Amino acid sequence: MTAPQQTAEGVVFGLVWPGKQEAAALADVPADKHFVTCPERSVGRDGTRGVTDSDDLCIEGDNLDALRLLRETHRGQVKLIYIDPPYNTGMSFVYDDRYAQGKRAYVRDNGPADDGTAAMQGRFHAAWLSMMLPRLTIARDLLREDGVICISIGEGELHTLMLLCDEIFGEAERITVFSRVTKRSGNNGTQFSPCVDYVLVYAKDARRVPPYQTGLSDEIVARYSKRDEHVRQRGPYQEVSLYQAALKHGGSHYPITCPDGTQAVPPEGRPWRWNEARLLRGLEEGRIVFKRSRRTPLLDPATGRQSAWNIYTKMYLKEREKNGLHPKNFSDAFQNVLAAAELRRLGMRFDFAKPTALIRHFVTLQTTGDDLVLDFFSGSGTTAHAVMQANAADGGHRRWIMVQDAAPIRDGAFPTISALGEERIRRAGAALRETAGAEADLGFTSLRIEDGREAPYD
To answer: Would you kindly state where each structural domain of the chain is located, as residue ranges?
Structure first.
């Protein structure tokens, strides 16, 4: 699937597969359809059915058609795209997740190849990549300059999707590969039991995306248990050693005078965490603690023997909360069982949804105010639910656009996935309305895509 390509300039690295050029050309095809408003399926800002006054959109139809139309109306306006595309597992659940091409058809279209060659492996990935390429290309056009796309994916297509996104967005714009524990139980698989999937996070321009911050966990907050005379202004504190063995460079090595007049330095010329100027400020502000210790790693520079003191800094909770933490690129807090429970509470069932907590995590990191969130593989409407939750929690007015085709659901209570998603959003909005208040916009305008080139909205 990856091979050097010969060009006039020489050999370049790239991801290649049969049908790539044709797939890339689909991104440039102009829209030949239009949106039609469906008042009977819409919900107004105040929760009234049949009112189409909400800025939030549920679009029913092929997502490539929808993206072409949205490129005309929303180019450069989307702050966050989250998608959960088919993982190309070869399985068939409520929708088709099989993109592999049969051996005979693949050889017919692409020439002879032995079963064991890398070329033959393309039959498992080529159609999936051809489906993703034009959609991600247009998605990039829809992002703001500080916009980000998050793509859930399994292990099977992680490698190809990363190379594809490196090509479309640029390797330098890859923010992270977020790993998520999907379940703790189960014993499937052969050598290993799979229990992790991934979220690829890419920016349109990573330089414009500010550092992400998240709040402190209860476990971290519990460490701040000490109090002093500054507790009202600074909150409780925890003590952190001024010398840390893992810090081998980057700081300053100097003697510190202890309460008994002796001095202390780190061993082997290693540095303190703070330079001397910062230490002096810390002493003035009451941020330094001296403790007698028989197990201190510090040395008395006059004798070369072990010091009688250890030295700590006070880390205050309010200051730590203000600075926050960078979120980790791994979590076991967003397991799939949470999604099933959420839908049960709404009186619904859909076995393959993502937990709202997962998507809300990225929504709160990346968006504020009235930022726009897009999901063009919206499935059961989890992203819309997560955005509404985020708005209810912080008073934001984030807007959202969901796109889902009318794929039939086998043996389900709803005829199509798009119908299930719209109903889930209605029920989620009604459940949140009691806590969010009447001012929150928990409605949406329902649109469907129809043939014929008219104005994007009918």
So the answer is: 22-91+131-214+333-451, 221-323
CA distances from 434 to 109, 382, 394, 441, 442 (A): 57, 19, 15, 12, 11
For 179-224, give the secondary structure using H, E and C: EEECCCCCCCCCCCCCCEEEEEEEECCHHHCCCCCECCCHHHHHCC
**pLDDT tens digit sequence for 36-65:** 999 999 999 988 999 999 999 999 999 999
Give, in degrees to the nearest 5, the angle at Cα 270 between 264 and 272. 60
Please tell me the CATH superfamily of domain 22-91+131-214+333-451, with its number: Vaccinia Virus protein VP39 (3.40.50.150)
Residues 6+ apart with CB under 8 A from 122: 1, 17, 18, 106, 110
The whole model's pTM is what? 0.84
Mean pLDDT (whole number) for 143-151: 98
Angle at 378 between CA 376 and CA 382, to 5 degrees: 140
Indicate if the pLDDT at residue 92 is higher than 80.
no
